[in-house]
Amino acid sequence: MTEPVPGDPRPAIAADAAPVRARPSNYPEPFALRMAGREKRPLGDLFGLTNFGVNLTRLPPGAVSALRHAHSRQDEFVYILEGTPILLSDEGETALHPGLCVGFKAGCGNAHCLVNRSDADVVYLEIGDRTQGDRVTYPDDDLQAVLASDGRWQFRHKDGTAY
Q1: Which residues on adjacent β-strands are paired with residue 92?
Q2: Is residue 58 part of a domain?
């Protein structure tokens, strides 16, 4: 199989054969380092999808999906394919397993992330829309983010100063 390219008209690809995102994290340091080991395969981008994104994500033991966060304008959905991650949210900790899914409505304020505390990989699909002007809050970290019109995240300290 040849490597897929954005907008490729093929009807199907093997998701686990899609290229891993070149840059492991968009976060500025020191936060990017906390995403060590996480692998994201941006599946939606391979087909030129612009209204929503789909990632096949693998977390090795000890890895986290993201900093605990909440979106102002973007919905998020996660479906567990393999492994047993722990969902950390405002409600506390919830054990997940293959076949379970969880969603976070835009603006709900429920900060969340997944943590792999097991000794096996966790694999899941994450799906989210790409609404412009989205703001992300990180209650556990000195960080906030805004999705700019060019599709890139702009990160700032909570006091508004740039990283």
Answers
A1: 89
A2: yes
57: domain CATH number is: 2.60.120.10
Does the residue 87 lie in any domain? yes
* CB environment 9-36: b (16+ within 10 A), e (fewer): eeeebeeeebeebeeebebeeebeeebe
Domain count, the chain: 1
Does residue 88 form part of some domain?
yes
Structure tokens given for 34:
């906390």
DSSP of 55-118: EEEEE-TT-BSSSSBEESS--EEEEEEES--EEEETTEEEE--TT-EEEE-TT----EEEE--S
Nearest to 79 by CA among 61, 60, 55: 55
> Could you report the per-residue pLDDT of 76-112, keeping only the tens digit for each?
999 999 999 999 999 999 999 999 999 999 999 999 9
Residue 149 to residue 105: CA distance in whole angstroms: 22
Question: pTM of the entire structure?
Answer: 0.90
Instruction: For residue 69, give its domain range.
Output: 51-131
